[in-house]
Amino acid sequence: MSARYPVVAITGSSGAGTTSVTRTLQHIFRREQITAAFVEGDSFHRYDRDEMLKATAEAEATGNRHFCHFSPEANLLEELAGLFRGYGETGSGQVRKYLHNADEAEPYGQRAGTFTPWEDIPDGTDMLCYEGLHGAAVTPAVDIAQHADLLVGVVPIINLEWIQKAWRDKNERGYSGEAIVDTILRRMPDYVNYICPQFSRTYINFQRVPTVDTSNPFIALDIPAADESFVVIRFASPRGIDFPYLLSMLHDSFMSRPNIIVVPGGKMALAMQIILTPLVLRLMERRQLAFSGPG
């Protein structure tokens, strides 16, 4: 793509750890003096919290026991694709926020579990950074992936993903163990059909693999620490990747396949900085060329 305004999409299911990539990009943007517009995937859910409870109950009444936030019909996917496409062409678009808790809702004078009004993206941004469930989604009705300039997947092995989700939902959102398991089971069909296929469309996947026992994720007392894991980093193509440089910069890393480097978990943030910085700078170079070229 040759967008004047690049779109970066970080994709992973809830509890996957996508926020760690967003934080890394924020550091890069700040250091390189790049102004980014940030978009949360939750803001493109179709329903607020109360509406989602009602829609879920209505779906169950018709025999659909798998309606969830992973489902295409529970999200504004066409609007998200339109944002990616429109921002890439004009640097503009409309976004909103989903207010997860009372702390987020208080400044807006709203209830938790509601959306803020749609607002225009401020003028003067250089690129858009999306973090959410559907940044590389493709359905019979819409192709979001085609409108992104850089797709990044965050995909911990499934038991670790469940541990991270359970810990967050229990400690930050007050959900019971039974509610957490019910959510995981409800989401499984759409996880398989709509979330997993996205990671075959990404340019890079970061997959954390713990080196401790996670065989029963539902009794884990804590999340395995970074130093108790490795990170498997898969590139869609090894072309243009300086693996000898990465191996020299990331102590104790190794290649497992021609397009995969494995790094100690404690080096994940450093690996992200080293890998993502030149990719972001390349997008900025292409942006400059797009502005200086014909039209």
Provide a descriptive summary of the structure in words.
There is one protein chain. This protein has helices at 18-32, 49-61, 77-90, 102-105, 158-171, 177-195, 243-249, 268-292, and strands spanning 7-11, 36-40, 94-95, 98-99, 114-115, 119-120, 127-132, 150-154, 204-210, 229-235, 254-257, 260-264. By secondary structure, it is an alpha/beta fold. An eight-stranded mixed beta sheet has the order 2-7-1-8-9-10-12-11. The chain has a two-stranded antiparallel sheet with strand order 3-6. The chain starts with 6 loop residues before the first strand and ends with a helix. The model has no long low-confidence stretch (mean pLDDT 93).
Care to give the gist of this entry?
The protein has 295 residues and is of the alpha/beta class.
Q: How are the SSEs placed, and which strands pair?
A:
Blueprint: E1 7-11, H1 18-32, E2 36-40, H2 49-61, H3 77-90, E3 94-95, E4 98-99, H4 102-105, E5 114-115, E6 119-120, E7 127-132, E8 150-154, H5 158-171, H6 177-195, E9 204-210, E10 229-235, H7 243-249, E11 254-257, E12 260-264, H8 268-292
Parallel strand pairs: 1-7, 1-8, 2-7, 8-9
Antiparallel strand pairs: 3-6, 4-5, 9-10, 10-12, 11-12
